[in-house]
Amino acid sequence: MAPAERSELASWVSPTQLALFESMHVADRRHGLDVVASLRAAGVESCDALLAGLLHDAGKGRIGVWPRVGYALGDHYGAWIWRAAGHLPGFRSDLDRLGRHAEMSARLAAAAGCPERTVELIRNQESPRDPEFGELLRIADEAN
Question: Among 25, 112, 118, 131, which residue has the least CB neighbours within 10 Å?
């Protein structure tokens, strides 16, 4: 991450939250920054929502590109792809982690001291419940 980006993030996240962000896979960090930019472009100024956009994929861990592709294809075309891909070495646990990443991300965010609203936005990212920011987060996530 460029020093300017790190400095800007450090101005609105805690050191623990920044450490969680920096522990994320580089693709998830870039995605989180893009989601934050989309939320801001939509007029969102809430730190709770922006923090959710930044950290919503923290639970994915260091999963490589091919399990991510397999998961996305299964999400689009059906679970049969996950079952087939699960036979490839290492894929079963990675696909499982991707399927549970929202809850894992929420737990990591809570442990990093994120507000409860942020934690719930992350936990419910695929089926939004927050009437103000839930759907905005989902749309920003899918657009990026």
Answer: 131
Both structure tokens of 108: 């990591």
Q: pLDDT for 97-130, tens place per residue?
A: 888 999 999 999 999 999 999 999 999 999 999 9
**Is the CB of residue 60 less than 8 Å from the CB of residue 28?**
yes
In 3D, which of 69, 119, 130 has the Cα closest to residue 98? 69
Taking the CA atoms of 73, 74, 78 and 83 in sequence, report the sign of the dihedral they define: positive
Please identify which residue in the block is written with the tokens 């049969």.
80
- Residue 121 and residue 48: Cα distance in Å, rounded? 8
Q: Cα separation of 144 and 133, whole Å?
A: 17
Confidence of residue 4 (pLDDT cuts 50, 70, 90): low
- 3 state SS of 112: coil
Residue 125 structure tokens: 């990212």
